[in-house]
Amino acid sequence: MTGEPGSRQTRPGLAHALVERFGHLVREMSKFATVGGIAFLIDFALFNYLTSVRGVEQVTAKTVSTVIAATVAFIGNRFWTWRHRKRSNPAREYALFFFFNGVGLGIAVACLAISRYGLGSIWPEVFQTPLADNIASFIVGTGLGTLFRFWSYRRFVFVEAGTPAVPEVKHDRDHRA
What we know:
The chain is mainly alpha-helical.
C-alpha cells in the first residue's frame, strides 16, 4: 500500500509542502526574532536606565539605546541568522546594516515623537508618561521597524549567493537522426 499512487507516503500533504517551501524562511525568522529579542531587551533596559536614572531626554536616550542594541543585532544576524549566506565586503554589510537600522530607528523615534510631542500636546497626562513612551517606542515603533529591518536585511544586506550559471548547450544543427 505504501507505493500506490495517492497513498499518504508518496504524496506529501499540505503541511509538508509548506515546510518544504517556507521552512528556510521560518528558520530565518526564528533566528532573527531571537537576535532581535536580545537586542530589544538591551534597547529597552538601556532606554529606561538613561531616562529614569540618568535623566537623559527621551529621544536622545532612544537613539543611544538603539545604536548599542543594533551593534549586538548586527553581530548576531551576521554570524548566526544569515551565516549561511555569502559574505560580501564586511564594510559594505556593516554600512548597509546600519543604514537600514537607521531607517528602523527613525520609524521608532517618529512613533515616540508623535506620541510624546504630537499627541502629548493634546493630552499630556496620557501621552507624556513613561508607559506611553514605552508603548510608542517599543511596541508600535519597534514592531514597524522590525518588519522593515527583516525585509531590508534579507534583501540588501545579507544577500543570497548567486545562482550558478547553467552551461550553454550547443546543438549540432547538421546532425540528422
